[in-house]
Every structure is written in C-alpha cells, then in structure tokens.
Amino acid sequence: MRNLRVLRLNLLGRLTDKAVPVLQNFGKLEELDLACAGITDAAVKDLKELKSLKKLDVGCTRITEVGFKELAQALPDTRVHR
Question: Where are the domains of the chain?
C-alpha cells in the first residue's frame, strides 16, 4: 500500500478530519479524490503534508475558501480542485 499512487475516497461523507492523518502513510500518492467527503478546514494541516500529490479534489467538502487557498499555497505543484 505504500506504493499507492491514486486513491479515490469521494462520496464518503463519513470520512472525517480524523481519518486524514492516515493518508500520510502513502508517501507516493499522486492523486487523491476527497470530493464530497465529510472533511473541513481541520484536515488542511494534514493535507498540506502530502507533498507528492499532483492532483487533489476537495470539491463539495466543508473546506472553506480560506482552507482552499492555504492548500493551494502549501502545494504549489498540485492541481487542487474545489
């Protein structure tokens, strides 16, 4: 699992901020889809650590504009979709 490159957890409303730190175990993750997951700005601090990401989808989550901008700044080489 450490070599996992693409992970789609979209439409999992039960996925909360508490689950996001586990994603740091996937050091080679390039694409992460969290669209419609039950995450908020509290998850941003952990998502910012996923430096290998090339694409991140956080559409339809409860991440605010402030959190979105923070992600975009912390991950300049990542396409962050809202």
Answer: 6-81
Mean of pLDDT values over 71-80: 97
- Report residue 7: phi and psi, to 5°: -140, 120
More confident residue, 32 or 11: 32
The superfamily CATH assigns to domain 6-81 is Ribonuclease Inhibitor (3.80.10.10)
- The encoded tokens of residue 63 equal 């991440």
Q: What are phi and psi of 16, to 5 degrees?
A: -115, 180
Phi, psi (5° rounding) for residue 28? -110, 10
Give, as one character, the DSSP assignment of residue 24.
G
> What pLDDT, on a 0 to 100 scale, did the predictor assign at position 45?
97
Q: For the chain, how far is it from start to end, CA to CA, in angstroms?
A: 27
What's the pTM value of the predicted model, to 2 decimals?
A: 0.93
CA dist 1 and 16 (Å) reads 21
